[in-house]
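Record type: monomer structure entry
Structure origin: computed from sequence
Chain ID: A
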Amino acid sequence: MLRLKNINTYYGKVHALKNVSLHLAEGEIVTLIGANGAGKTTILNTISGVTPAAAGEVVFCKEPVQALQPDRIVKLGISQVPEGRQVFKPLSVEDNLELGAYLRYRSRESKAAIHEDMERVFALFPRMLERRKQLAGTMSGGEQQMLAIGRALMAKPKLLLLDEPSMGLAPLVVQEIFRVLDQLRRETGTTILLVEQNAKAALKLADRGYVLETGKVIMEGPAAELMENAEVKRAYLGKDKKEIWER
């Protein structure tokens, strides 16, 4: 479904991604792990067009997308849940979800179909239904994260990009979010690319993983194998890393 080939991305003169290649098959959950500054978020932003690649190729569903604007990439079926959630705090839960479907409204898709998808979001996250008229900025961090995921789902993505969904959240909330991601894949076949500092939880959820270091992929493989890799254990799966998600 998605293939990155020899991607190079810069922030000014800073070479953030260095010949990065990776792929996702349809229906997979793939995780990116690595230290802060390794390039994980930059990969997501490069895929979504927020930080375009200077060189290399991004192919989504057999179509090159590296030169497209972010709105066009969303329309093709890629949605990103950004780090820090970035919900529209002065707006209600319902309004945030409506904005997630903005391009669908612009293309004159049936309002009934859009509202049906909103009900599916409420089924995934019952707390959102209880708070549908509440201002997003008055909700807890965990509720805002659920809303950010729901907003991304309102675009009907084939590929969902998630950037640090567990950041700053209580373990029980993270557990709920990871269960929803697993449910999404099982019930709808949504493909997921996950950036997550909690490497143990991410590898338990994922089918495969890539390990990044200073803008390069240094290791890749099935999640179960990475979990047992001595170097990955030493760097990312230490005894102090609390496990918060169980299949």
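Annotation 1: Residues 239-247 have pLDDT under 50 and may be disordered.
Annotation 2: DSSP finds eleven helices and ten strands in the chain.
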